[in-house]
Amino acid sequence: MAEFKHKDIIALRDLTAGEIELLLATAENMREINSRAIKKVPTLRGKTIINLFYEASTRTRTSFEIAGKRLSADTVNISPSTSSSTKGETLADTALNLLAMKPDIIVMRHAVSGSHYFLSKKLPNCSIINAGDGAHEHPSQGLLDMLTIKDRFGRLDGLKVAIVGDITHSRVARSNIQGLTKMGSRVFLAGPPTMMPPGVDRLGNVTVCADMKEAISDADVVMMLRIQQERQGKTLMPNTREYSRYFGLNPDNLKLAKPDAMVMHPGPINRGVEMSSYVVDGAQSHILKQVENGVAVRMAMLYHVCGGELE
Amino acid sequence: MAENTTVLLDESGIKRALTRISHEILERNKGVRDVVLIGIRSGGAYLAEEIGKCMEIIEGVRVPVGAVDITLYRDDIKSHAAHLPVGKTDISFSLEAKQVVLVDDVLFTGRTIRAAMDALMDHGRPSSIQLAVLIDRGHRELPIRADFVGRNVPTSLKENVALCFDEKNLPVEVVLEK
Known about the structure:
The complex is a heterodimer of chains A (311) and B (178).
Chain A: H1 17-34, E1 48-53, H2 59-70, E2 74-78, H3 91-99, E3 105-110, H4 115-122, E4 127-133, H5 139-153, E5 160-164, H6 171-182, E6 186-190, E7 206-209, H7 212-216, E8 221-224, H8 229-232, H9 240-247, H10 251-254, E9 262-264, H11 277-280, H12 287-306
Parallel strand pairs in A: 1-2, 1-3, 3-4, 5-6, 5-8, 6-7, 8-9
Helix pairs in contact in A: 1-5, 1-12, 2-12, 5-6, 5-12
Chain B: E1 5-9, H1 11-28, E2 35-40, H2 43-59, E3 65-68, E4 99-107, H3 111-121, E5 128-136, E6 148-152, E7 160-165, E8 171-177
């Protein structure tokens, strides 16, 4: 099995298929800890993890915090409303100040794509984990989605995965495209032309469909994306009702997918917009399993970056 | 066979040792009541299965067998350039008030056993933990001793003791590599 020697996990684009497989295998075995009465192992005792979230998050931040605590690391959360960034401090200055606290890992979410590469250069002795950067990548979400799919089908190779929604603004879509194509899945994208980035079909085994029906027909996995009202600025669609009619998942068009197809969503869900409540709460929905796998995947990420080429 | 290896135990030797250990475990615990076997991954887990089978032949009862992976409890985790892959801990029964027999292939510094005991304690509070090993090669660095030993082998620190398994994970032989 591959060895993991990266200091940071910023994008699934930077990882090989073997490294992704190792992270998923570790996550699978970490799950046992989460089902015990004493949900803690001493592995990262004495390590300090700073969760630095410049954007709102409940799921991801809590999940990283629990993951760190279950590995016995000390975790500290810093969010913009309580930090100096509201007073005008730059990311570089914040980073250098945090460094004085000698963290081993910084988990950051930031609105600017690629800001983690900048932070990583500034902090050569600290591991950086990306918890979402702008419209670039969200590697922990990509990994937990792949783990959830692997749980269901036992493999990723050869599966047809449809990703539907606002591809342009979605870092979840980018991480999934990078990860899934490396692991041998066939990815089909659908969304309004205003939300489809040009050249996305050059990312590997990716097919862009004009019609959502084409993407989800015979699919093993249907992954719906959230309409990100906060990121869009200008309206890219006439209204949510029209969007829902052409690109929303409902019990009728779900019938086009394979009968045992799984439905996923990175959350939070806009019920009635990208997905009808019947589908969200239906038997094919794996949305809560995704959340459950989040902790194990993040434990695996923290564990492997800590063993990198530090010191 | 290379010149610098010696066979310490062959297949039938291993079988006899495991049969004796099984008898000793039953004798010490006066039967199979509350006895569970936990093997340390990977070698010990396979041996625990074998001891479980022996005990079933002797006593006619199948005792619960589990496996523990100690990677996350190691004390030398910093000395590895990359973190080791994590194996699966598989204990599908409660350890509360059980007589746990921990099984490993080779007892050496005792650090693996320390890690395994810490892992077991996180799963519950057994009434006792006993240790069964196929080979005790000495050189302890912690105050740990085995309750059931297949064979004591004096070794130098430069030597290596290895238990080989076949493709069905059945023990084949124990060799001393110089």
